[in-house]
Structure to design on (1174 residues):
């Protein structure tokens, strides 16, 4: 089985030392979220994740969730753990105190998301979608609905889902067929089939609140005729207690490569009672409030799984002895494999990506809070644009890197990585869903280039690149090497961006066939930028914690020497265009 | 379930049109292997692989091999299929007619290896190791042993294994502990434990012939005290019939991420009778005869799995409709996803890598035959050096590309790629062993840079690069674009090679930390070279089969535009050296 020790030191470094963000610091309600309070929360979070949630990973993989006589049963230990989880208030961490939440900012809850992703992704998904549904209801539903449903969801006694996909529509939701027929009392009856519904049914909570997109009987075809509905598994009575079962049944649960503890359901809606949330025919917009936050969390899943894969690889590399290293001083027997340059390189590759991503994610959490809570509309909008821009990047890059890192972890473990005992192959399988769900990484890349670079508020990508450039005008001579490297990379990003903008005018296929590469370049540059900000602090605050900062500087050094140069090939291959691709005739 | 149609057309193109290899054509015994004969063989091979072996993939994944009361039982259908398999003579394809084999060259048997890897890797492994053991016995054993064991192995009634790994030694075989004690009759008694033994025990054959490395009681420590022994599961009597059970028991079989139909065994040797094969204390050399050929076959496994992943992705992309493409003419509904530029790009990426690899592999098969059978020792040695050079490259590159291609196949299938029904996720899991076994890909890269670039016969890599350069002096103006691209890549390879040679003198860690990148660069260039030779034929023979050659040219075009540029980043990141890596202190 894997071991896990929550990286509290790095998280607290970010929370304590990387707070130099004027806009974020102006948010009134977070001023009382002190360093001590956060440290306390993370230490408690580490305990439940390390001791109670981590063992659920193996349990769920060996005893997947099953559907028995119409009841979905979660793996052994899930129920007991979930009870403790909600008793300790972890579902409510980032929710509004108005509904019983603890009102913590995403700068804190993202750390919790990372830890629980490391410990057991399958278990995490049962509460993750609840928070997604909570956010959506909180944004779009009328007060009456909010008061009726949110407190129980915040408490974790009821959970939530997002019901989008149908057999013929995944990426393309305009094709959906689920019908909603309005009743005389203003409610709707929903009929249709939804598939791939994460936590669609299970035995952990008293009720499940489904957010379902469907087409009202008088709505137009395509994406412009989609509305959003709240459809509970059990009808909730006026007094808030649970009433009769609604017309939803679980057709089957999917047999999957990984996350076997998570119930991925086929749900059949048969005249199920639902309540419209948000304006009619604007259901996709409402759902996307939830989807965008959710996509960042999927990125964090990739980060969390990367972290535990790295920790286990490091431990194994220190213990496993094979062969003599180039500088071996062993006269008898072999050296620990960490002394071999190729293994050490692989470990540093993981570490430099993980810590860079965590810093980038922290900045993104700050931006998200500014976009939701700042009082100045202009500041709010700019933060919102940056969050939009970076959402597909973080979702895709962190999950792709999660595959690279879990794969490298398997290589370091050799045959022991491929067999079940060590738990490494499970991390690889579990993480493999993250580049797929919430929109495949290719869909993210399309979203990035066609909708996020330039939007109705203008040239977002240029503003973002300018922000980075401003940070590079720093005169700290310690940063010179790093700034020069990043400067060159920004030249590539600039050229690539201009090429994309130019091709957008009359050669969209060039853009489509370059979008995955472009996303990777932007992600690598954004991570380098996050590293620059970490380096600033590391040099300025060096004497207060020499050992810690020296490690940061050397880790960054690896990133700039070995990871950042990947952008060159992405750029070079992309600008060859797409004519020869689109002209190709497959037999 | 996946579908599969053997790519006979491409294979026959290589066999028929790419035979312009003087040294290979001088091998007397293959002159009668006509195009018609090979076509016939491939058509029969396609039938058994498509109809009988392909369904075993799902069967074995759902009902893995089990150990019950000391007996290893293969999945449902394996026994019946194996019976047909050996009746039709497929185990004997490349074996010596002297022992009942069909004497086909590797230029033919490699195609069969590819097909059966596509159809079901787990099933393949039962006969693959037999052929490995056959080769090793045929090279190193005395006539008496050969006559006693080989005919039954060629017939497929007995199978073979390679027993190397032990709990504390995988890569580093010098650490092995299995002991062999010589008896008065010249036989040995072996005691010890071997792990990760592929096909170590099963119910498909009457006997299993283990090739075991062990240390004779009076041999020195380390790799210089290792000898090779033939240890049968059942003692074979003087008359060739099967006698009593030898002292070998199966401790357990591994539970693995994939290839679940393959029995990966822990074997306990307890005073088991064995016969020394080859000279004492030179066991590793003898074993490596087998290992090197085996490593190429592992590369072919990656190629085979890539091919079936590609075929299923192509079919799915033509059928699945989602979203409008940039040039959509659909007025109602969605386009097939193959019309989307990013998906089409992904399919062409697969195709251009697969066909390039197949051409490279065909050239390598020719070289292998020259290295084994040419009458001129000098020609033989040069071929042998090239085979040595390319063995780690083909093993690593084809298996890594297999991961890229099966992963991209999963992305194309979206959620349906992650669930079990379509069989895509199984290809991904099955292929994941290939970068690990027969020496991890990192071990291959170390082998390449430290042992293969320059060996006792001189500067092999320079001779290889010169060979490519000579082919680029072709004046065919159609090739100009391709030759210019490859020329630039060879500059990078040249610079990288010189850097490696320089660092080899006094900075071996620089070499170790660059070796994986160097292997990738060499592999990408070698594949481009294989494409150049395909292009030559395509232009020269264009009019005879316009449609086929046009497809080849366009596929090559993709490779040169989009795949080959990957070398840039590998080179750039590598030359940053290793000091900052080796100086890093992990806590």
């Amino acid at each position: 089985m894997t071991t896990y020790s929550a990286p509290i030191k790095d998280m607290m470094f970010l929370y304590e030392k990387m707070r130099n963000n004027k806009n974020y610091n102006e948010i009134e309600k977070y001023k009382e979220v002190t360093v001590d309070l956060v440290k306390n929360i993370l230490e408690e979070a580490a305990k439940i994740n390390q001791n109670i949630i981590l063992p659920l990973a193996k349990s769920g993989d060996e005893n997947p969730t099953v559907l028995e006589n119409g009841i979905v049963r979660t793996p052994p230990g899930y129920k007991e753990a979930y009870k403790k989880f909600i008793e300790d208030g972890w579902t409510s961490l980032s929710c509004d105190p108005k509904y019983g939440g603890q009102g913590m900012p995403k700068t804190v809850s993202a750390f919790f998301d990372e830890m629980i992703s490391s410990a057991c992704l399958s278990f995490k998904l049962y509460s993750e979608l609840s928070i997604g549904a909570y956010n959506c209801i909180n944004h779009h539903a009328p007060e009456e609905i909010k008061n009726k449903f949110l407190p129980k969801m915040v408490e974790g006694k009821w959970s939530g889902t997002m019901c989008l996909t149908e057999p013929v529509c995944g990426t393309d939701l305009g094709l959906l067929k689920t019908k909603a027929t309005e009743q005389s009392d203003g409610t709707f009856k929903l009929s249709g089939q939804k598939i791939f519904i994460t936590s669609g049914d299970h035995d952990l909570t008293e009720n499940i609140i489904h957010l379902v997109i469907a087409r009202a009987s008088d709505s137009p075809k395509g994406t412009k005729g989609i509305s959003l509905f709240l459809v509970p598994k059990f009808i909730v009575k006026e007094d808030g207690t649970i009433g009769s079962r609604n017309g939803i049944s679980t057709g089957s649960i999917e047999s999957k490569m990984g996350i076997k503890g998570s119930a991925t359901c086929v749900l059949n809606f048969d005249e199920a009672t639902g309540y419209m949330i948000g304006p009619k025919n604007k259901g996709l917009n409402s759902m996307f409030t939830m989807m965008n936050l959710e996509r960042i969390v999927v990125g964090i899943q990739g980060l969390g799984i990367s972290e535990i894969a790295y920790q286990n690889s490091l431990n194994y590399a220190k213990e496993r002895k094979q062969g003599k290293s180039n500088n071996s001083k062993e006269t008898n027997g072999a050296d620990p494999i960490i002394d071999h340059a190729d293994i050490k390189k692989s470990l540093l590759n993981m570490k430099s990506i993980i810590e860079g991503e965590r810093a980038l994610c922290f900045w993104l959490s700050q931006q998200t809070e500014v976009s939701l809570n700042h009082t100045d509309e202009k500041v709010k909008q700019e933060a919102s644009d940056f969050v939009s821009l970076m959402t597909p990047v973080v979702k895709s890059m962190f999950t792709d890197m999660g595959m690279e890192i879990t794969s490298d972890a398997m290589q370091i473990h050799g045959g022991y990585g491929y067999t079940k005992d060590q738990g490494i192959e499970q991390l690889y399988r579990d993480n493999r869903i993250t580049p797929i769900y919430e929109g495949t990484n290719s869909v993210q890349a399309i979203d990035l280039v066609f909708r996020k670079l330039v939007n109705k508020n203008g040239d977002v990508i240029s503003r973002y690149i300018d922000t980075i450039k401003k940070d590079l005008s720093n005169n700290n001579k310690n940063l010179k090497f790093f700034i020069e490297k990043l400067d060159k990379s920004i030249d590539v990003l600039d050229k690539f961006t201009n090429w994309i903008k130019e091709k957008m005018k009359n050669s969209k296929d060039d853009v489509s066939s370059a979008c995955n590469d472009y996303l990777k370049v932007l992600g690598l540059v954004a991570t380098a930028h996050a590293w620059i900000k970490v380096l600033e602090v590391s040099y300025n605050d060096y004497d207060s914690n020499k050992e810690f900062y020296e490690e940061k500087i050397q880790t960054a050094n690896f990133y700039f020497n070995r990871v950042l140069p990947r952008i060159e090939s992405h750029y070079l291959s992309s600008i060859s265009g797409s004519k020869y691709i689109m002209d190709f005739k497959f037999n």
About this structure: The first helix of chain A runs from residue 8 to 17. Residues 8 and 42 of chain A are 7 Å apart (CA to CA). Chain A touches chain B through 92 residues (CB under 8 Å).
